[in-house]
Amino acid sequence: MMKAEKIDATHGSATKGEHHSAASHSAHEFRVRVTKDHLVFSAAHFVTIADFCERLHGHNWRVGAVVAGGLDENTFVVDFIALRDTLQQIVNQLDHHMLLPTRHKEIAVQELPEQSVEVRHGSKRWVFPLEDCILLPVDQTTAERLAEWIGERLQVALLAGGATKLTSIEVEVEENFGQSAYCLRHIPPQ
Hints:
Blueprint: E1 5-7, E2 14-16, E3 30-45, E4 48-49, E5 52-53, E6 57-69, H1 80-94, E7 97-101, E8 108-112, E9 116-121, E10 124-129, E11 133-136, H2 143-160, E12 166-176, E13 179-186
Parallel strand pairs: 3-7, 7-11
Antiparallel strand pairs: 1-2, 3-6, 4-5, 6-12, 8-9, 9-10, 12-13
């Protein structure tokens, strides 16, 4: 009976019958990346720049993520399908909504009794149906803050799903072709 031939990654030499475990890669950090055509959400927003407040407008935002860490017992950082599906669930929550920041120091967002949301900035006032809004705990609905919010949600979901060897999550949010923001979250050891 023949033994399987393995290549020793350290020295590049073939060894007979040796098997490398996930533990032998403890000095390595591995990364997986997911970006799909369907990881897109269409949403409206506005941001402020100093005293200037943009007009309401929308984007077809694209989302991708890079997850880094050690290998689990299946030799995965995280299963691609689990990462894709978790990211899709988060993206779906934002799709076809008005994104409103609840922590902006000059934008007042208030839920009204008639199932609507009133938004004020300076002399501007908007009223939206509550069901059409996502009230985000951020100071601006910039691509940077959306990447941060998505990354927080992704981290919580992946850790709850058993991905305990993660060291970082980087989320990309593209608001227009060639214009992306990234948020890199470092994850303390679990």
